[in-house]
Design brief:
By secondary structure, this protein is of the alpha+beta class. Strands 2-1-5-3-4 form a five-stranded mixed β-sheet, sandwiched between helices. Strand 1 and strand 2 form a beta hairpin. The termini are far apart. The relative contact order is 0.16.
């Protein structure tokens, strides 16, 4: 017996995509495999590492914990949607300038989390930044330059 399939429309980075998915297919798998936007990474697939974070109607969500059918009718932003006409946005620029990445695996999820965070807290303290980063695992940087990058992004965006 095959699983039920659903035709859904997803709005990702301002573009509409019509896809047919099984009810149990995650948003992360749909974004990566069906839509072919591979900036969203899959790490733990349990919502712990934060690598799969995307913005759903402006709020950070773990796309590995959501079914694609749940996102139908919402506006989804992935890391590929942050730039404007090839120009890095203010968070990406701050990360580049302050060396806020190394291998890059966690970077997309961190960038998406930071966008949501700075929207709700445009002037964070270092402690608030570190607390927010608790939902994103990075094994390379030790977080020092990530914290510095987020602080710089916040200062730029004020």
């Amino acid at each position: 017996m095959s699983a039920a399939k659903h035709a859904i429309s997803l709005s990702i980075n301002g573009e509409n995509y019509d896809v047919v998915v099984e009810a149990r297919r995650t948003l992360a798998d749909t974004i990566r495999e069906d839509i072919r936007l591979t900036g969203t990474k899959l790490g733990c697939e349990h919502g712990v590492c934060g690598a799969c974070t995307v913005l759903l109607d402006g709020k950070a969500v773990r796309s590995c914990l959501m079914f694609a059918v749940q996102a139908s009718g919402c506006e989804i932003t992935t890391v590929e949607g942050l730039d404007t006409d090839g120009e890095l946005d203010f968070v990406q620029q701050a990360f580049a300038k302050n060396h806020g990445l190394q291998c890059g695996f966690c970077t997309a999820g961190v960038l998406m989390s930071v966008h949501s965070f700075l929207k709700s807290n445009p002037n964070p303290t270092e402690d608030e930044i570190r607390l927010e980063l608790g939902g994103n695992i990075c094994r390379c940087t030790g977080y020092q330059n990530i914290v510095k990058s987020i602080a710089a992004a916040a200062a730029t965006n004020r």
